[in-house]
Amino acid sequence: MTSMSSSARPLLNRRLAEFGTTIFAEMSALAVRTGAINLGQGFPDTDGPEEIREAAVRALRDGRGNQYPPGPGVPELRAAVAEHQLRRYGLSYDPDTEVLVTAGATEAIAAALLALVEPGDEVVALEPYYDSYAACVAMAGGTRVPVTLRPHGEAGQRSFRLDLDELRDAVTDRTRLLLLNTPHNPTGTVLTRAELAAIAELVVERDLLVVTDEVYEHLVFDAAEHIPLASLPGMRERTVTIGSAGKTFSFTGWKVGWVTAAPALVTAVRSAKQYLTYVASGPFQYAVAEALALPESYFTAYREDMEAKRDLLAAGLAEAGFGVYRPAGTYFVTTDIRPLGERDGFAFCRTLPERCGVAAIPNAVFYDHREQGAPFVRFTFCKRADVLREATDRLLELRKD
């Protein structure tokens, strides 16, 4: 084999040079190596409803989806997604022209950005943001422009908030698209109707497109309410809404997501998506169609269970000495490590498994402005209650250090 010259161009595309192995892979591997409880990566430790798992088995045995499913997704799932949007939000979508099934929300985000963003376009996103956002903007050749959600409040009342003036100032003549996430990972912020109305007004005024990641739509707590941006005046024709079965039904390995949008937007996104996975998750699509038709009691029980787990973990983290930002949505809790005498979230998370047998994620990885996220660490509560209790008991060791 001929060796590469030291002057050879780097193998990795320069657009991806800043992105290495994801922090989720690193921390999950560290958890396995040390035997730590993994409260870092957001995957449940129990499967979703048994009848939905059996629906997937039935599809496999009946030969439904074992070969390539239709490019836009199986008709049953597209119809179920359209019915879900109409029933919950009063949003009417044509399942044939306005719904696209994807390989999870991650592919939906990638396909939307690759389709809608050209080199030189600016994409405004709320910071901290899920790490694939930055990578997908880079792959599309766009420039990401972060607008930082900033911490507010004292013990018991901590939250992260959007500065609407800062958002407005971030939009320039080069801005093509807003990339929003509500309920927001990792902060747990749920944008209010007033905030969304202000965003909609700005988007219409500046003639922008919007991609909204709403995968945690069924996990909103207390008095919070999930409001799809597409439901506001002037937004349906310029918004790509992304949903996912993984977060709602606890089958993250199935990788079934979807896009709902006006026909022209769906056509554009599909044009990119068909050259990514082409199609995926055939039998699981049929099962998710049945899941979306589950009675409201399922969604209520799921939310109440996660809310109880949120309270359990938040109380344990506070007892261990963290500053806790109580989330209004998602299944993550952001904490401040400064009350523990710590300041570097990366260093803290890399030593935490050895110190007390728990793995977490440093929020700084979700920031362009790393210093803004340095003292914050994210824990997930989508685990069994007994696992959360064991984890919080272990974290009490931090008070003895």
Strand-helix topology:
Blueprint: H1 23-34, E1 37-38, H2 50-62, H3 75-89, E2 99-102, H4 104-116, E3 122-127, H5 131-139, E4 143-148, E5 150-152, E6 159-161, H6 164-170, E7 175-181, H7 193-206, E8 209-213, E9 239-244, H8 245-249, E10 257-260, H9 263-273, H10 282-292, H11 296-320, E11 323-325, E12 332-336, H12 345-356, E13 358-359, E14 361-362, H13 370-373, E15 376-380, H14 385-395
Parallel strand pairs: 1-13, 3-4, 3-7, 7-8, 8-9
Antiparallel strand pairs: 2-10, 5-6, 9-10, 11-12, 12-15, 14-15
Briefly, what is this?
This protein is α/β, with parallel strands linked by helices.
Word description of this protein:
The protein has 401 residues and is α/β, with parallel strands linked by helices. It is 40% helix and 16% strand. It has 14 helices and 15 strands. It has helices at 23-34, 50-62, 75-89, 104-116, 131-139, 164-170, 193-206, 245-249, 263-273, 282-292, 296-320, 345-356, 370-373, 385-395, and strands at 37-38, 99-102, 122-127, 143-148, 150-152, 159-161, 175-181, 209-213, 239-244, 257-260, 323-325, 332-336, 358-359, 361-362, 376-380. The radius of gyration is 21 Å and the shape is globular. The relative contact order is 0.17.
